[in-house]
């Protein structure tokens, strides 16, 4: 339903506005908990019309888990009641504290919160995000080490 509404770039009628308001509020998806236990508590965007800050109480849409829980993808609309504007929102929030959001047909990267993880936590995030590419070299290293010990 959201992609069907996103494709319409003309002025929206009351029926489309009502369908957007029927989408769940972002507050129903927050706080969002990532696979590593990190939390995303609050999300805010600015109105595309008047640039007023919109809180999660004024954003309708869905938050989907991606990449084994390391990414939360938001697709929705900001509803500004002051200037009566519906602002499409598409964003991805990563467990490491970075985010990407669509602005003027391009993606902008930002930090969504200051993250102060220990070195071991950063290493675990790195390994968790890249475990499939790390396994073959690890297996090769173990095999080579075993051959070395047999000599």
β-strand percent reads 25-35%
Our Rg estimate from Cα atoms comes to 21 Å
Name the quaternary structure.
Answer: single chain
- Topology pattern, helix = H, strand = E: HHEEEEEEEEEH
- In total, the number of strands is 9
Strand order of the largest sheet: 5-6-7-8-9
The averaged pLDDT comes out at 81
Largest sheet: 5 strands, antiparallel
Distance between the termini: 64 Å
Instruction: Give the structural class.
Output: alpha+beta
What's the short story on this structure?
The chain has 151 residues and is α+β, with helices and mostly antiparallel strands.
Q: Topology, pairings included?
A:
Layout: H1 2-6, H2 14-22, E1 32-33, E2 39-40, E3 45-46, E4 53-54, E5 59-66, E6 71-80, E7 85-94, E8 98-103, E9 106-111, H3 119-150
Antiparallel strand pairs: 1-2, 3-4, 5-6, 6-7, 7-8, 8-9
